[in-house]
Amino acid sequence: MLQKLQSHLSQPVSAAPLAVFRVIFGGMMLASVLRFIGKDWVTELYVQPKVYFPYYGFEWVQPLGEAGMYALFTLMALAALGIMLGLFYRFSALLFFLSFTYVELIDKTNYLNHYYFVSVVALLLVLVPAHRHFSVDVLRKHGLWVSHVPRWAVLIFQLQLGLVYFYAGIAKLNPDWLLEAMPLRYWLPAHTHLPLIGPLLDEVWVAYLFCWFGAFYDLTIPFFLSWRRSRLLAYATVVVFHVLTAVLFQIGMFPYIMMVSTLIFFSPAFHERLLGLFRSIAKVPKPALPRFAGTAGQPILLGILGFYFLLQVLLPWRYLLYPGQLFWTEQGYRFSWRVMLMEKTGTTFFYVRHPKTGFETEINNRDYLTVNQEKQMATQPDMILQYAHMLQQDFAERGMPGVEVRAEVYVSMNGRGSRLLIDPKVNLAAEKESFLPKPWILPLEDVAPPQNAVGQN
């Protein structure tokens, strides 16, 4: 069985889809990095904040100072250019993966699903021979050129995209989304000013239509893209879906990244035509003789990829290990392709008390956090705990060790009334961060938001 699977995955297929994916992904990443620098987000997100919220186990990942961060983003842009051109490709792909992932690990305030997607795709690019077809590396070393690559080299990107969509669809199979049309019922009326579709966005039935279609789309689009007869219509749906999300929601480059990435589902002939266009622009001749990349070392690599995709399949289900409502506790929420599923706002009041002296004070969060950091921290228990530890450390450095930190955190989720998120009696400074359940998170008592959470027409 395993031998048949390995044989199937090792069969030669056209290298054109892989080359096109490399060029387009590298180009999108280059544009994204330059956009990030141009909007001064490097300074805003990684220089100006006084504190950061690193991921558990990655506390050693810290910002590098203004000069260091701009140098890192410059290297990231050059690496993206190297991926696009296929220039020093393996080094470029590895450098991009490491630099991009390092930046994302600095502060979980800035977590977005599409940043996670970029990191995992960059990692996969390190493993494939995407530089051996239509690349500067081939022009430098003609012996690198191949016309065909093993099937797995293309399949892994199709599978990764399929998992992103499918798990996004599974995540939508929840009562708030399907039965209450939340949070779209709350978000869409803010866009009634848009031409043509604007007046419809104030209708409740439109929110329900978007929710149900969104779930159906995510659950089925990988399969429709994989089937030749439905592929063209499916891709047209991809374009419409992501253009709508780009217009309605401020989610950066993600819609465009997904639109171009899903082209990898198209046939080799389609990608050969695209490469023909690229060649005519770049004045690069097409080699005539077919040549296969070979399969040396593939069993080990396929084993590594098998383990990687097993993690990708299992990771979104880890929330089942934790008690409580996932959207409320957010334990197991990240890295699971849950996209735009909740409207959650919070208000926090932190109190520091020194038990020996009786000194007690309320903290002004803006003395420590940026506006966005406070907004994100106010609804995410692990960030609340980190912030409490930051306060304890700050007071210790100011000559007051051993302070207690408590917090009153009021959170509203998907139209529900504001309520306490964590136990205000717990000394958060004494609680340790871990992957274990956090017993100081208070349960969400009611499952569904009230019917009158937003106005209805």
Automatic annotation (TrEMBL):
A single GO molecular-function term is: vitamin binding
Keyword list, A-Z: Disulfide bond, Lyase, Membrane, Transmembrane, Transmembrane helix
InterPro entries registered for this protein in UniProt: HTTM-like, HTTM_dom, VKG_COase, VKGC_lumenal_dom
Any one Gene Ontology cellular component term annotated for this protein? endomembrane system
Q: Does the keyword Acyltransferase apply?
A: no
KW Repeat (keyword) present:
no
HTTM-like domain spans which residues?
10-270
Membrane topology of the entry: Multi-pass membrane protein
- Name of the protein: Vitamin K-dependent gamma-carboxylase
Query: Per the UniProt entry, what species is this protein from, by scientific name?
Result: Pontibacter akesuensis
What lineage, starting at the top, does this entry show? Bacteria, Pseudomonadati, Bacteroidota, Cytophagia, Cytophagales
